[in-house]
Structure formats: C-alpha cells, structure tokens
Amino acid sequence: MIDDALKYYQINNPTVNLIRHNENMTYKITDANKSYVMRVHKPTEGFSLDLLCLGKDRKDLVADEIKILQHLAGFENVHAQNVKLNIYEKPVTILMDGTPVTVLEWIEGNTLEDIDVTAEIANKLGIMIGKLHNSLAQTKFENRYHYDRALITVMIEEASKASKQGHFNEFNANIIIETLSYIRDYLHCASSKFSLVHSDLSKSNLIYHKGVITPIDFSLSGYCIPEMDLASAFSHINNKALNQDILDGYKSICLFEPDDKGIEVCLSLQILLFIVIQHNKFASEEWFQDMIDNCCCEYFTPLKKQLDNIINL
User: Fold this and answer.
1) Residue range(s) in the chain whose domain bears CATH number 3.30.200.20
2) Where are the alpha helices (DSSP H) in 7-54?
3) How many Å separate Cα 272 from the centre of its chain?
4) How far is CA 307 from CA 151, 183, 265, 274, in A?
5) Per the confidence metrics, is the pTM higher than 0.70?
6) CA–CA separation, 308 and 225 (whole Å)
C-alpha cells in the first residue's frame, strides 16, 4: 500500500520508516533533500473511531483536517505542518481501494515526551494553545467531529452495551453512564461557546524545536468548548504547577476566558472517550480495568457530585 501511495508524489528515491499504526499508518519519508510525514488513513485492526463519526465519511473528515492546516498556514504566529500536494496538485490522494493518503512536511525537533517539560516550556504551550484558538475562532468546517450532546448520547448507549458485554462491572458502568449524562447536560448548556479545538494535545503530538512548540495530528479535531484543549494538555503534563503555567500562558494571549469547571468536565470527557471507544480492544486487559476503577474514584464520582450541586442550585 505504501508503494502505491508513493507513486502519487514527487519524492525521489525515498527511504521509508513506519512510525506508528493506530488510526493511521504513519510513515517518515525521506529523500535526498527533505523529510515528510505520509499518513495512510487506514486504522489498525481493532482500532475504530466510527463512534465519533456520526455518519460522516472518513474521506471528508480527512479533507477537512487538511483544510484546517491550510487555514493555519495563513497565520504567521501559529506553527503548523505544511501540506504537500500530490502530482495532480491535490492535497488528498485516494487509493484504488478508497483509502485516503496525505503527506505533510516533517517538523524537526523532539516531542514533549522526549524532553523535560519546564515551567518555561509549559507557559509556551499555553501561549501556543491560545494562539491556536484565536486563529481558529469563528471558523466553520462541516466535516469535523462534534463533542456535543449527540455524541455523548451515543457514548452512553455504547457504555450500556459494554456493561452488558461484561466489559465494565455494574458499579463502574453506572458511574460512567451517570457522569456522561451530567457532561452531556453541561456541554449542552455551554454550546454557545463551542469552537474548533485540536482535542488531542498529548505529548507525542507536540513538537518542540528552538523554543517553538508545534501541534501535529489534527485528526481528532472538532467542535467543543475551548477548555477541551486545556484539559487534554493538563492530563498529559499531569503536574499541578506546570498546568498552572500552561493556564497562565493561555490567559496571557487568548481572547477566550477559560472556566475551571469546564476544564474538569473536559478532562473527564477525554478519559471517557478513550474508555468507551477502546473497551472492545482492551476490556480483557488488567491495566484497563484498573484504570477504570481509578478514574471512577478519582475523576468521575467527584465531578458528578460537583455538577449535581451546580444543577441543583
């Protein structure tokens, strides 16, 4: 498949290295002068994002992801990957079997997984997220995910199925479903604040080079409250002092004023997305069940109680 994909691009004598295979087959492609990221948008066996799609075609989702990167290219203070067009001057290639392929310029540097995240870097991360939100404000891309009432209703239905399959015990299933119900109501009330967010700011999706942080992989980007990206960064940095540095950087540049409760809601939503989407793949793994036990105790139950108090005021 990679050989078929390469035929559509002017890359001379490429060397090919597989980086990872999750929702995409992601390769580093290098020729004599330059490096690229080629993504063959075909998920690994057992990995599915169909739950998020709500009827949207994968090819349309990929096309709009590329449009987001092209939109960001128009902002000098926002760093993003440039899109390489194929030999037909198109940003997305469709292989004979219908699989989309995209190629982006390689970003030099290290992921935040590979470096010590200092207070300075955390602050720069917050500033980067703020600039990203400013540049994406008021944009409308039809084929993106929507982390909203409709999606969370589907997540509740899936969690119920998982419980019946024995993937969640009854106690945890009830907590998960109740928490999702509260999150659904909270986000519905906050829907006027929805804007385009990255939604997957893990350390592996943040490249640091010469003092600049570049976000990569907008494949899960969609519409939600802006706190979704802060929650994503907080969950992966996982350090109270550094998270405050992120927040300070964000507030120094962003036009939007974040809400602490919104961050907590989105933090639980991020975790629940992973649990509900991946339960079929990992239900038999001990670490997965331990994670659910811990999250129900540490995140979902406290959040449910706080939101219950707010709703009853």
Assistant:
1) 2-106
2) 50-53
3) 13
4) 19, 8, 9, 21
5) yes
6) 20
Q: Which fold does the domain 113-312 belong to in CATH?
A: Aminoglycoside 3'-phosphotransferase; Chain: A, domain 2 (3.90.1200)
Closest by alpha carbon to 2, among 37, 33, 34, 48?
A: 37
CB 218 within 8 A of CB 68: yes
Local confidence pLDDT in tens for the 313 residues of the chain: 899 999 999 998 899 999 999 888 999 999 988 999 999 999 887 777 888 888 899 999 999 999 999 999 999 889 999 999 999 999 999 999 999 999 999 999 999 999 999 999 999 999 999 999 999 998 899 999 999 999 999 999 999 999 999 999 999 999 999 999 999 999 999 999 999 999 999 999 999 999 999 999 999 999 999 999 999 999 999 999 999 999 999 999 998 999 999 999 999 999 999 999 999 999 999 999 999 999 999 999 999 887 766 555 4
